[in-house]
Amino acid sequence: MPVFYGTAVESPLMLGTAQYPSPAIMAQAFRASRAGIATVSLRREGGAGQDFHNLIKDLGIPVLPNTAGCHSVREAVTTAQMARELFETPWIKLEVIRDDDTLCPDVIALVEAARVLSDDGFQVFPYCTEDLSVCGRLLDAGCQVLMPWGAPIGSGRGLNNPYGLRSLRAHFPDVPLVVDAGIGLPSHAAQAMELGYDAVLLNTAVAKAGDPVAMARAMALAIEAGQLAHAAGAIEARDMAAPSTPLFGMAVLG
Amino acid sequence: MKITLNGEARDLNGPSVQDALAEIGLGAAKVATALNGAFLPAAARAETTLKDGDALEVVAPMQGG
Predict the structure, then answer these.
(1) Which of A2, A156, A240, B11 has a CA positioned 20 to 30 A from the CA of residue A206?
(2) Short-list A32, A60, A52, A223, CA closest to B62
(3) pTM of the predicted model, to two decimals?
(4) CB pairs < 8 Å spanning A and B
(5) What residues of chain B lie within 8 A of the CB of A49, using their CB?
(6) What is the pLDDT of residues A117-138, one digit of tens each?
(7) What is the average per-residue pLDDT within A183-193?
C-alpha cells in the first residue's frame, strides 16, 4: 500500500469527487472501489458546500484538497492555505495551470509554489509532467511525492509517454509516484501500476462512465492486477516466437 | 460599506469580516476566507475590519478531481 508523508493509505486508487450523476452515486463508487483517498476542491460558497463536506466526511478516508484552476503562485498558495484550514490537513494537491486547452502544468510556477508551501509546513502532492529535471526540482523544493500526468486531465487517452514514466520510476526508485490524470480505461490504470507506480489518481473515467459504480470497481480490480503483476516480475517482450510447449518428445507423424 | 463579495458588488454593514459573514447567513458555516487575495484565518475574522473597496472571497468544500 502506498505511504505518503508517513501515512499509509489503504488503496492505491485515489478517486476524484467531481462530475458524478448524483452524490449518492459518488458515495457508492467510493464504496465499490474502496478508494484510499478522495480529492476535493474549494469553490465560492453558494449553499451546497456544507452538505458536500458532510458527504465527504462520511466516506471515512483521507481527503486530498486541490488547487485546481489556479494559474499563479499567489492563487495556489492562498487556495492551499484556505484548504488546510477547512479540511484540517497539511496535504495539498498542487495544481498550477499554464494552458487551458491542455491543462498543462506551469512547471516553473509549480516548483516555486511547492517551495513556498513546503516551507510553510504543507505536504505537497504536485501535479506535474514526467520531466526528470522538473521532478528533481520538486523534490529539492521539499516534495516527497510526485504526480506526473498520464495525459491531459479529462482526455482519457491513457499513458501518453510510457517511456518517460518508466524513466521517472527508474530515476527515483524510492519516491512515491502517482499517475495523475488522463486515465480513460482500467487497462491504462493497470499499465501505470505495471510500471511500478505507487498509485493512480483518476476522476472523469469513473464519474462520466455509463455506470460509474461498476467502472469504479473495474478500476480498482485493474489497479490490483497491475500491482500484482509488477511485484511478480514480467517477462521481456521479444520479436520472434518462442514455443511454450516443449518440442522434445513430439511424435513423428508425417 | 461597498465591498466585492465572491465577485459581486455588495453593500454590507460589517464592520468586521465575521459580522459580514453573519449578515449573509454564513456566520456558523464551515467556510474559508481570503481578503484582497490573501488568506484570512478564521481566528482573525472578528478583529479584521472591512473597508470600502475590499474584495472578500468566501469558499467552501466542493467536488474536485
Answers:
(1) A2
(2) A52
(3) 0.94
(4) 99
(5) 29-31, 59-62
(6) 999 999 999 999 999 999 999 9
(7) 98
